[in-house]
Amino acid sequence: VLKLLLVAWDRRLIFAIGTSSTTGETDTVVWNEIHHKTEFGSNLTGHGYPDYNYLENVWAELRAQGISDD
């Protein structure tokens, strides 16, 4: 997954300019449909790890952006 995330980074697919789903702020830097875990040791917010479905989910999100391990 890390290698695929690096490909997404190189293709400038990690971030976009849009409206924040957490603050509602417009014209700001947001995640671009490839989720990342930003909280360690807790998943109370849904942004934490461990998240046992994360790897499957991020692979699907990367494939949707045209990035695969094939």
Automatic annotation (TrEMBL):
UniProt main location, coarse: cytoplasm
Pathway(s) of this molecule: Protein modification; protein ubiquitination
Keyword entries, A-Z: Cytoplasm, Metal-binding, Signal, Transferase, Zinc, Zinc-finger
Pfam families reported in the protein's UniProt record: DTC
Listed EC numbers: 2.3.2.27
Cellular compartments per GO CC: cytoplasm
Annotated Deltex C-terminal domain residues: 1-67
Subcellular location: Cytoplasm
Catalytic activity from the UniProt record: S-ubiquitinyl-[E2 ubiquitin-conjugating enzyme]-L-cysteine + [acceptor protein]-L-lysine = [E2 ubiquitin-conjugating enzyme]-L-cysteine + N(6)-ubiquitinyl-[acceptor protein]-L-lysine
Position of the signal peptide: 1-16
Protein name in UniProt: E3 ubiquitin-protein ligase
